[in-house]
Amino acid sequence: MLNDGEPAVISVSWWIDEWNDYIFAVVDAFMGRYPNIMVDTLVFPYDDWRNITTLMIAAGDMPSILLLDYDKIRLIAYEWGAIDLLYDLHEFSSILDLSDYPQDWPDLMTVDGILAAVPGLRSTDVGDMIPQQGFAISGYTQNPELSAYFLNFLFNDFLILP
User: Fold this and answer.
1) How far, in Å, CA of 122 to CA of 120, rounded?
2) What's the confidence (pLDDT) of residue 132?
3) CATH placement of domain 2-157
4) For the residues of 75-101, what is the DSSP string, one character each?
5) Contact 40, 10 (CB under 8 A)
6) Are 65 and 13 in contact (CB under 8 A)?
7) Residue 106: what pLDDT?
8) 87: Cβ contacts below 8 Å, ≥ 6 apart
């Protein structure tokens, strides 16, 4: 059992889109497998989500996991100079298995050698589609390892597609 069975909370934020039901199903399945881990969800229309996320980033009060457009990752890194707001997902290589991804996908989400985000679907799920968004782990989360386990579950364990 994750976290030695101790109760814990992580949060996931994204905007409403065609994958909304899928991500909610992942959250439910994750909590079913790991009942001691509560996953709070923060879901908004895209324009509201962008504004709210920008305010959360500025306040240093971000969710554990957030969906980001790849251009937002570069905005955080280069214009705000704040790439340290996101975990380098290389740190979780023992938890987060990316072996099913095309080799060039991590390049889309890497800034100055930091793997800032990973796409929400495995390559076998989307065929030749190139993702425009990825999930990142906030540098402010209290549970980065649990967040990495959630992302691994999303990518590798949850097999039902919309």
Assistant:
1) 7
2) 65
3) 3.40.190.10
4) IIIIIS--GGGB--GGGGTTT---TTS
5) yes
6) yes
7) 67
8) 136, 137, 138, 139, 141, 144, 147
